[in-house]
Amino acid sequence: MKSIAIYSLKGGVGKTTFAVNLAWAAAALSARRTLLWDLDPQAAASFLLDGERKGEGEAQAVFARDVAPAKLIQPTATPRLDLIPADASLRGLDRLLFGLGKKKRLEKLLERLSKDYDRIFLDCPPGLTETSEQVLRAADLIIVPVIPSPLSQRALNEVIAFLDRHEIRRGALLPVYNMADRRRSMHLLALRSNPEWPVVPMASAIEATTERHQAVGAFAPRSPGAEAMAALWQAIERRLARSNSTPR
Question: What DSSP designation does 116 have?
Answer without folding.
Answer: T
